[in-house]
Task: inverse folding
């Protein structure tokens, strides 16, 4: 009996050792470019699950009163704490936000919920949310308007957002004669300039705008990094698997996902490097970077763009900050980042289901 217990304990320890190794690799996976190895990108994707497995082992050792193994668990978790605190943010809300703060909102609008018209009896939910948000600056991804009958027009958008006298729309390659598709910025502060950040993509892009905020020059980069381009059928298949796991269906789906995700990871890594270069070359004293990164908090793209910037949600938010809301893809992929001379307050993901993304906003104080 004692021998059996010893063998069982050894087996559990070996399994825990493997879990420790995977946790450490996942925690630092965002340092490895997908161009070198996409394996680490997948480790970053599954980071929260790997953390939970390690917490399960810790709880088990505590029940067995194996304190030295508990200590090893704590050490590994402590070594991974930087990534854990980035993924799982815990901050109390600031009740009295400084009066000199500005409010910035970033929102992937899914083309204003697929160009739903803005009528008095049935208003466009995305537009109404933006108006009620009272944000000073709104950065939009998947901006859209159409001259077609029964669709949301450019005039409708301008009329609804009339409190934003300064705006620019950055059109992407798929813009057609009747429809505009791209990114946009609406601001209560003057926009001094705007220029394209070149992405080799039809559906995704980025731009950098220079704003004058009460006499301070601020650069704002609005991003929409490469999408994973999962079809509706593939997303539905994933949703079905989360409710009823079938080994054969899971194998088939994993193969499909790999074919989609691997090239997307590599493209995003190049786009992130391009954005990071723009940030490094920026000469304005203040920098804000936001948008839909299509990648998790433990990813090469997010880390590369962040560089020396601060992640507003990691520094002033609470929880996981899940910003994609469909098909049980429970990830934070929308971000607000800023230079160190800016302080963020109460970064929030609003659970508003007009688009397939939740809007993200925070208060920013320019020091």
Result:
């Amino acid at each position: 009996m004692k021998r059996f217990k010893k063998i069982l304990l050894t087996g559990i320890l070996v399994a825990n050792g493997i879990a420790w190794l995977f946790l450490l690799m996942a925690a630092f996976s965002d340092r490895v470019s997908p161009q070198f190895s996409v394996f680490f990108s997948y480790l970053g994707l599954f980071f929260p699950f790997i953390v939970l497995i390690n917490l399960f082992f810790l709880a088990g050792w505590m029940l067995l009163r194996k304190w030295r193994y508990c200590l090893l668990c704590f050490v590994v978790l402590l070594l991974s704490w930087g990534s854990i605190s980035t993924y799982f943010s815990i901050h109390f809300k600031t009740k009295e936000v400084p009066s000199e703060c500005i409010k910035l909102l970033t929102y992937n609008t899914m083309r204003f919920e697929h160009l739903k018209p803005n009528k008095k009896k049935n208003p466009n939910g995305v537009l109404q949310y933006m108006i009620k948000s009272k944000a000073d600056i709104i950065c939009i991804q998947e901006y859209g308007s159409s001259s077609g009958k029964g669709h949301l027009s450019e005039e409708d958008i301008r009329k609804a957002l009339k409190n934003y006298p300064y705006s620019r729309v950055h059109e992407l390659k798929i813009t057609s004669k009747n429809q505009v598709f791209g990114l946009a910025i609406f601001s209560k502060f003057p926009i001094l300039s705007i220029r394209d950040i070149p992405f080799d993509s039809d559906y995704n892009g980025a731009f950098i705008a220079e704003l004058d905020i009460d006499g301070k020059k601020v650069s704002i980069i609005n991003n929409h990094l490469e999408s994973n381009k999962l079809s509706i059928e593939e997303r539905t298949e994933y949703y079905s698997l989360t409710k009823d796991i079938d080994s054969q269906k899971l194998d088939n789906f994993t193969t499909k996902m790999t074919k989609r995700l691997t090239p997307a990871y590599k493209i995003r890594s190049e786009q992130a490097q391009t954005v990071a270069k723009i940030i490094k070359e920026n000469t304005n004293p203040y920098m804000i970077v936001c948008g839909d990164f299509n990648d998790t908090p433990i990813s090469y793209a997010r880390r590369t763009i962040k560089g020396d910037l601060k992640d507003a949600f990691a520094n002033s938010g609470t929880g996981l900050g899940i910003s994609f809301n469909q098909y049980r893809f429970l990830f934070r992929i929308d971000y607000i980042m800023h230079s160190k001379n800016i302080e963020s307050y109460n970064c929030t993901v609003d659970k508003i289901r007009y688009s397939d993304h939740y809007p993200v906003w925070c208060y920013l104080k320019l020091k």
